[in-house]
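Check this.
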Amino acid sequence: MDFYLTALLQGFCFSAIALGIYISMKIFNIPDITTDGSYTLGGTVTAVLLTHHLPAFAILPIVIATGALAGSITGIIHTKLKINPLLAGILVMTALYSVNLTLMGRSNIPLLNVSSIFSLINISGDPNHNTFWILLFFVAIVTLIIGYLLKTDFGIAMRATGNSESMIRALGVNTDRMKIIGLALANALTATSGYLMTQFQGFADINMGIGIVIVGLGSVIIAESLINWFKITSVWLSLVLVLSGAVIFQMVLAITLNIGVDANLLKLVTAAFVLLIVSLPRLSFKSSL
């Protein structure tokens, strides 16, 4: 049971990155590869500041700011220099590797005997249950903030930028600014996932972000499939399904390991699972014809 509880907790940790991918890919239609770098950046900043005995709560605003800075740089490169957004994200991600390595000073920072957000608050005597309640509260707050933002006039302008850029530009909205802010918000969320996961797993590693975009993408694709199947239009329900997608994704990987699949094949299983999710709606559509 603890095995699946750990998968659930990891799903909660990855929920912020799922929301970030949802904003960049589903609202703005921008494939943002900055994710791999900003996730590691969040973990790096968290580990470095924790080892310097800064409280975990004080670290969070710094992590959000650094993630937002990374995303805004990608947005500026894309909008002001007219660089393809995919290439812009790759450039920033590549640069962030050196930034993260410089900040860490080595490839790995263990967090042994360092207080984290999960040890500052004691809700339950069981460490796993305590982590569960803290993460659940954290995810709920983040979801409420993003949901409220997307329902405001500013959030509606953000969504309109992704749906019909030319129309919203004709109404006087600065679409370049919207894209920069959107990518900044997406990467701030991604860095927040790095902040949570680093404290959950007890270390930060320079390679922790490699392929992490697949986790967020898989979560969003699961949510998108459910949204299309149930014809959901509510912003709140869509966000809840994105969070559910992050948990489902981790549960599938946990089941895969539990049935005896070699851990060395986990990345292969992850890629195959995402491919299956992407393909199923199309295969169903073709079979109906």
User: Anything to note?
Assistant: The mean pLDDT is 88. The CA atoms of residues 74 and 88 lie 6 Å apart. The chain has one domain: 2-208.
